[in-house]
Write a structure and sequence with these properties.
By secondary structure, the chain is α/β, with parallel strands linked by helices. It has helices at 49-55, 126-148, 153-158, 171-182, 194-204, 236-244, 268-273, 287-300, 303-308, 318-326; strands at residues 3-14, 17-29, 38-47, 72-80, 90-94, 109-112, 118-119, 162-165, 187-191, 208-211, 227-232, 246-254, 276-279, 310-314, 333-337. The relative contact order is 0.15. The chain binds NADP nicotinamide-adenine-dinucleotide phosphate. Residues 48-50, 134-135, 138, 167-173, 191-193, 212, 216, 233-234, 238, 255-259, 280-283, 325, 328 line the site of NADP nicotinamide-adenine-dinucleotide phosphate. NADP nicotinamide-adenine-dinucleotide phosphate binds at residues 48-50, 134-135, 138, 167-173, 191-193, 212, 216, 233-234, 238, 255-259, 280-283, 325, 328.
């Protein structure tokens, strides 16, 4: 039986509260893996906000114990009972419950559902696919939603408007800035670290930077119309203010809750300005949407921008890096080389 390294989380809960939690790198065997029809030799995983919450013992992500965290994996199929997948195929998996209710990508091996796997596009290396990860996949789902609602780069530029990206120096935000800029949109990046991250965000393609403090406090139901579209990863007052500042007919996507899961808003932007609010869920995205998003990521994400936003760490450094992410000291994307 193959044995391999994995990060393993164990926790005890009482009335839904986590009362004891450990996260450590451990050697486990194939017997530890859960049911699935495809076994993958994992090459890379990465660190998302959710992974940091799970590794850090925060509630809401790990739904079983013990659990291998990691909501993303990129690797090579070793064994498959699913006729679509053969040994040697290069695959990527984002979400679908891995790292939450099913063992995830922060291990050298994984057993998963063939139904949720996507072939890594030929033009992307495995490192690049992991650098994109759930954060980049979610940023692409957000851009696809803006496009579905008719947002057009030339029209946004001609109107002297822009697309606002919140949590811009984070993973979802960084990829969203790079994607939107490459597609030709003027992009305003909102960050809590304007002095530290302005050059980084401008290099990714942001045309303007604002301090997130402008958006994070309670605001009026309708405010000056500033954004033709919004990619929000922050929620709470930030999302409420973004809605109140969106121009007539504009679209706002909501994927995250870095500030909070509340939405202290009114219906005014919807009924007086025809604003659309679109929810983004990467975990349960159907396979056709997954494939479309990955096809578009292969063509519409500048690979130099992707390299500029990516840091690499070995498996053993992941637990420390999760603390750093939650403390707001990381930026962009962190790829985990699970074999290092
Ligand atoms: N719906 C989905 O399918 C889906 C998928 C992926 C992620 N998400 C969610 O999207 C969010 C971002 O994920 P991520 O992986 O990009 O995380 P991340 O890399 O940690 O980025 C989050 C960013 O949010 C900003 N932020 C942090 N705390 C804040 C606060 N109190 N107020 C305002 N802004 C704050 C920071 O950006 P600045 O330093 O620039 O201010 C931070 O870098 C998370 O809530 C995550 O759970 C959802």
């Amino acid at each position: 039986m193959t044995d391999f390294r994995a990060i393993v989380i164990e926790q005890e809960t009482e009335s839904g509260r986590i009362v004891a939690h450990t996260a450590e790198v451990r050697r486990v065997t194939d017997a530890f893996l859960m049911a699935g029809d495809v076994t993958v030799a994992v090459e890379y995983s990465d660190l998302n906000f959710k992974d940091a919450l799970a590794i850090g013992g925060r509630p809401g992500v790990a739904r079983t114990t013990p659990l291998i965290p990691g909501i993303d994996l990129v690797g090579v199929v070793e064994e498959s009972e699913d006729e679509r997948w053969r040994p040697g195929d290069r695959v990527v998996l984002n979400g679908d419950g891995i790292g939450e209710s099913h063992h995830g990508g922060l291990a050298e091996r994984a057993r998963v559902r063939g139904d949720a796997l996507v072939r890594v596009p030929d033009v992307l290396s495995s490192e690049q696919a992991a650098a994109i990860g759930t954060a980049g996949f979610t940023a692409m789902l957000s851009v696809l939603a803006l496009e579905r609602n008719g947002l057009d780069p030339q029209a946004v530029a001609d109107a002297g408007s822009s697309v606002l990206v919140t949590g811009a120096a984070g993973g979802v935000g960084s990829v969203a800035v790079a994607l939107l800029a490459k597609l030709g949109y003027p992009v305003t990046a909102s960050t809590g670290r304007p002095e530290e991250q302005a050059e980084y965000l401008t290099d990714l393609g942001a045309s303007a930077i604002i301090d997130r403090a402008e958006l994070s406090d309670p605001g009026k139901p309708l405010q000056r119309q500033r954004w033709a579209g919004v990619v929000d990863a922050v929620g709470s007052h930030t999302l409420a203010n973004a809605l109140a500042q969106t121009t007539y007919g504009g679209t706002v996507t909501a994927c995250g809750l870095a500030q909070g899961s509340d939405l202290p808003a009114t219906v005014m932007p919807f009924i007086l300005r025809g604003v659309t609010l679109v929810g983004i869920n990467s975990v349960e995205a159907p396979i056709a949407l997954r494939e479309t998003a990955w096809r578009r990521l292969a063509t519409d994400l500048d690979t130099e921008a992707l390299a500029a936003m990516t840091a690499f760490i070995p498996l053993a450094e992941t637990i420390g890096a999760a603390d750093e992410l939650l403390a707001g000291r990381l930026h962009g994307r962190t790829v985990v080389d699970v074999r290092a």
